[in-house]
Design brief:
homodimer, two-stranded antiparallel sheet, DNA-binding
Chain lengths: 275, 275
DNA sequence: CCCGAAATCTCTAATAATGAGACTTCTTGC
DNA sequence: GCAAGAAGTCTCATTATTAGAGATTTCGGG
């Protein structure tokens, strides 16, 4: 079907373990993949040894411990998680809201960490939750700061989504709207991802001033007076900027940027991870 | 060196991303693996497309979004996490402690979820943290309930560790000590994993009454009066039993077991996951 | 102790992986 | 704006690896 090389085949097997089918028997996999029995078992053996898969006591297979460990590794040494945490806590301490940190992977937006202070949040954003690529404040807060070329490509790819939000009809129009976001330094979205919820997001930059993530806060819509919104927004932007600074961003010609002038020591390798 | 098949080579690359080296450049990988440049880049391409790796803006590679998503998948549909959470919260609400749920993967013990209620816990147990296989209450609470054969094999493999804890000098002696644990239904360890911390752990069973996990609580040693310890222990055991029941365990001839007689509906496939 | 299902082994044809070196990009410096 | 260097990709013949049919072993119950 799709896979040619044996690597692709391994990946294809991994691909089968999805939300609605996280448990497979070898025979089901044989049917699904079309590989011969010995072939499939060979793959399974390798994958189980690597810990990517594990066999359930009751004769089945699932994703294995290696996955959990790798995520742990990433979390543990991700400077973004590390530096972001206090801000997530700070924000949720001030307002009854959900604060989240979302990383941009080029083709995916994934929640990396979150903190909640409302008693019953309207939706949850645990680590690993994928966010829509072209809807919501998070998306825009990042798009607006991409290199023009990348940005335009992304706009083209998600044109219909961006239309329906009302950002503009044509790519240039949309780019214009994003320019606003860029100027403000944050994006606001009303119920684009979750109805009834306002999202405010500001980008986080790495040492090379590339946007790599977004700090976002979501609040139940009826709680916000418009004057408060300004206050919240600038706080979020400030937090995002501080995180960027901690990641070692070099303040280019961004004198307009808010926030203190923390002089940064040379980036320690440990700190540079993921950036 | 080690890898023969291309699958093994892929895994070998993955293996290189460790705690102390989570960021690699292609050239470093070429040196580390010994593959030719086109070969390595072929691997990288596949792995990046699969999301297992991702390239950092500043020219390097790390583990990719796929890892985070897979862990999310596992967490989201893991009935153990789902059913265990309320108990973790309940336990930490009653005592100033850390409660954790640890899954047994045959060769690894990994923390799956945890909750903390002490202000400054002596050590942390986030999801994904590996636990020692043959030390501490968790380890013993599971070992004691394994089929004899498996148990003896495990004892042999970790003899020196088990010795040093004082469980016994020879395998049969150790087995005898574990019999005690089995009778009690829980294990206690004094500072075996973290000095100054007492751990109390009880096993969690799947539908087929195979031990698959352990519910554990750790408390700073000086906080415990020995009469309280009994109380805590039986509560933990009770919680673990209730979790087992929710996972669909069939109460075999375990009339001695504590806890209510919740009659269980037939295991819904969704619930059977991971068990 | 024996049965059936699950997993592994054997072995050759055929297929896919390898790597030297040429060839594109893309950066970065001047 | 151009040139030099680095990073990544392509081509293609050689070679080693993978696939799969079928036999064989192992395991788990009854």
């Amino acid at each position: 079907m799709s896979g040619q090389s044996s690597l692709d085949k391994l990946i294809a097997i991994l691909d089968l373990f999805t939300e609605d089918h996280l448990e497979w028997t070898p025979d089901a996999l044989i049917k699904a993949t079309g590989y011969a029995r010995p072939t499939l078992y060979r793959y399974l053996k390798t994958m189980k040894e690597a810990g990517l898969l594990t066999s359930l006591p009751g004769a089945g297979l699932t994703l294995g411990p290696r996955v959990v460990e790798m995520d742990y590794l990433m979390r543990k040494s991700d400077p973004l998680v590390h530096h972001g945490r206090p801000y997530l806590e700070g924000l949720t301490a001030t307002w009854p809201a959900t604060a989240l940190l979302v990383r941009w992977y080029g083709r995916r937006l994934l929640c990396i960490d979150s903190e909640v202070s409302t008693t019953n949040p309207l939706s949850s954003y645990p680590r690993g939750r994928p966010m829509p690529l072209a809807r919501g404040a998070i998306s825009r807060s990042i798009m607006a700061f991409l290199p023009r070329k990348t940005m335009m490509a992304m706009i083209e790819e998600n044109l219909s989504d961006l239309n329906s939000i009302g950002l503009g009809a044509t790519p240039p129009e949309i780019a214009e709207s994003l320019k606003q976001v860029r100027k403000q330094g944050y994006a606001i979205a009303y119920g684009e991802v979750t109805p009834g919820v306002v999202g405010i997001a500001a980008p986080v930059f790495d040492a090379a001033s590339t946007p790599i993530a977004s700090l976002c806060m979501t609040i139940a819509g009826n709680l916000i007076a418009s004057d408060k919104l300004d206050q919240i927004s600038s706080r979020i932007r400030q937090c995002a900027d501080e995180i960027s600074d901690k990641l070692g961003r070099i303040r280019a010609n961004d004198t307009e940027m808010a926030g203190g002038d923390v002089p940064l020591e040379t980036a320690d390798p440990k700190e540079r991870k993921f950036t």
